[in-house]
Design goal:
alpha/beta; Rossmann fold; 7-stranded mixed sheet
């Protein structure tokens, strides 16, 4: 499915600018533009590729964009792996926010990685690499400073299949809804919970937590 980047909707651009300011993030006009274009591409491709169950652009701003950017303070190091990235969440917004860091976005669904490849081309994201593979089979020559997951299974399962990709001084960041008490009891001895924090998306009454787990 070919797409051509067009001038973004001015109303949506304004809404994205307002959303990032609510998160106390200072972004350039180019970054705001790219975040807006990513949402528009999701909306366009979603009609055919079913990238996300959310169809309303306003809901995408809160539930996808703001949700992704909320974890920005928890991203450390230079090499970041986003497991089960789907429509590029949180990887694409974070890569736009941190152009100096290198992001690898991993998803096993080829239609989603085809979409992401197009996003990278259209937005000119030189710091993003896309891989279509299952995390269970994925290997990489360099370990990652931060591994992040927004929608991949349980904490214990991701640590089991992706823990080998985490640098010794690195971390695995989990984006969760409610407090994952039961999942945290299953963290293997080779890792430990460093911190867990409740996050609030402005204007949305929903629980959101970020758990940072590090090698022991």
């Amino acid at each position: 499915m070919a797409t051509t980047t067009t001038k973004p909707d001015s109303i949506l651009l304004t809404q994205v600018r307002k959303a990032t300011s609510q998160l106390d993030l200072t972004l350039s006009n180019i970054q705001i533009l790219k975040l807006t274009q990513h949402l528009e591409l999701i909306n366009k491709w979603n009609r055919v590729y079913n990238l996300t169950a959310i169809r309303d652009l306003n809901a995408m701003i809160t539930h996808h964009l703001m949700d992704s950017l909320l974890v920005a303070p928890y991203i450390q190091g230079e090499k970041i792996l986003d497991v089960g990235t789907g429509a590029g969440l949180p990887g694409i917004p974070l890569a736009i926010l941190y152009p100096e860091k290198q992001f690898l976005l991993l998803d096993s669904t080829q239609k989603k990685t085809r979409f992401l490849t197009q996003v990278v081309i259209e937005l000119g994201l030189d710091n993003v690499e896309i891989s279509s593979d299952r995390i269970e089979h994925f290997t990489h020559e360099v370990l990652f400073d931060t591994i992040i997951s927004r929608a991949f299974s349980t904490i214990a399962k991701l640590l089991h299949v992706a823990g080998k990709l985490c640098a010794q001084q690195g971390q695995v960041v989990f984006m969760k809804g409610g407090y994952p008490a039961e999942e945290l009891t299953a963290v293997p001895p080779s890792f430990h919970l460093d911190q867990i924090t409740r996050l609030d998306i402005p204007g949305i009454d929903a629980e959101r937590h970020v758990a940072v787990i590090k090698p022991t």
